[in-house]
Amino acid sequence: MGIGGISIWQLLIILAIIVLLFGTKKLGSLGSDLGSALRGFKNGMKDLDLEKSECDELASTSTLKSDEIPSEQTLTNSVENRV
User: Fold this and answer.
1) Alpha carbons 80 and 74: distance in angstroms, whole number
2) How far apart are CA 16 and CA 53, in angstroms?
3) 34-78 pLDDT tens trace
4) CB-based contacts of 31-35 (< 8 A; 24+ apart in sequence)
């Protein structure tokens, strides 16, 4: 028995039917499109991890002193001045 009660012969018959329906050219282009999409996703994840590590690095190196942190009153005044 194969996967979930399906034998290898049944899987080969299904594969042959799919090849007959779509053709090898269309299946090849579908495979390459899927591969490029996965590659783009992996590159995006790497970029996201890189940006996160850069932000963490900047956050650890830059610290605010207590006199640099604006008070609540200063923030309220700046919002009222904008309106």
Assistant:
1) 10
2) 48
3) 999 999 999 988 888 888 888 877 777 765 555 556 566 666 666
4) none
pLDDT at 42: 92
How confident is the model over 13-23, as pLDDT tens digits? 999 998 899 88
Long-range own/partner contacts, residues 6-15 (CB < 8 A, 24 or more apart): none
Q: Which two tokens stand for residue 68?
A: 């640099």
Tokens of 5: 């009660």
The DSSP code sequence of 13-68 is HHHHHHHHHHHHHHHHHHHHHHHHHHHHHHHHHHHHHHHHHHHHHHHHH----TTT
Two tokens, residue 36: 């490029």
Could you tell me if 2 and 11 are in contact, meaning their C-beta atoms sit under 8 angstroms apart? yes
Q: How many residues in the chain?
A: 83
- Does the pLDDT at position 24 exceed 80? yes
